[in-house]
Amino acid sequence: MASLTLKINNKNYTVDADPKMPLLWVIRDIVGLTGTKYGCGIAQCGACTVHLDGVPMRSCSLPVSAVASKNITTIEGLSDDNSHPVQQAWITEQVPQCGYCQSGQIMAATALLKKTPLPTDKDIDTAMQGHICRCGTYPRIRKAIKTASTLMTQKASN
User: Fold this and answer.
1) Distance between CA atoms of residues 93 and 19, nearest Å
2) CA-based angle 11:36:87, to the nearest 5?
3) Geometric angle at alpha carbon 112, from 106 and 116, rounded to 5°
4) Strand partners, 7
5) Which residues fall within 8 angstroms of residue 39, CB to CB, at 6 or more apart?
């Protein structure tokens, strides 16, 4: 066990954990933020996506010792009240069906829109590649990303 200080959603947490423990389990089981989901455990499905210094990463296979100096953002860190434009677009476009993969999808979309405010279909395909939705809501995800892009562009111009 090691004592590590993590900065998650702009708050510092000191945790005692095995340095090899996946970040996902520290976030969920030790810190108690359960919005980030476990899907596959091998970084293939995207349900566990968080941002490390703004870059989307799969937290299920990332040892906590590798992120102690990073700013970690989980789905809970986007907003306290679902007011983030990507969350609003997800609601407007009624994206979730079962909803399990959606926190990872939203985190990937948020990173995309920060980097590419007006993404093309190809940009969306590239950014969302490997984010698996068992319910097949991909057309609604694409539509929500475009809606979020519009919302963010409008917000920036005001």
Assistant:
1) 40
2) 85
3) 145
4) 12, 71
5) 45, 46, 47, 48, 60, 100, 101, 104, 132
Say if strands 11-17 and 2-8 run parallel, antiparallel, or are unpaired: antiparallel
Per-residue pLDDT 10s for the chain (158 aa) are 999 999 999 999 999 999 999 999 999 999 999 999 999 999 999 999 999 999 999 999 999 999 989 999 999 999 999 999 999 999 999 999 999 999 999 999 999 999 999 999 999 999 999 999 999 999 999 999 999 999 999 888 87
DSSP assignment, residue 104? H
Strand order through the sheet with 2-8: 11-17, 2-8, 71-73, 49-52, 55-58
- Give the separation between CA 34 and CA 154, rounded to whole angstroms: 31
**Residue tagged 């998650």 (tokens):** 8
What is the crossing angle of helices 121-128 and 102-115, to 10°?
130
Amino acid at position 17, single letter: A
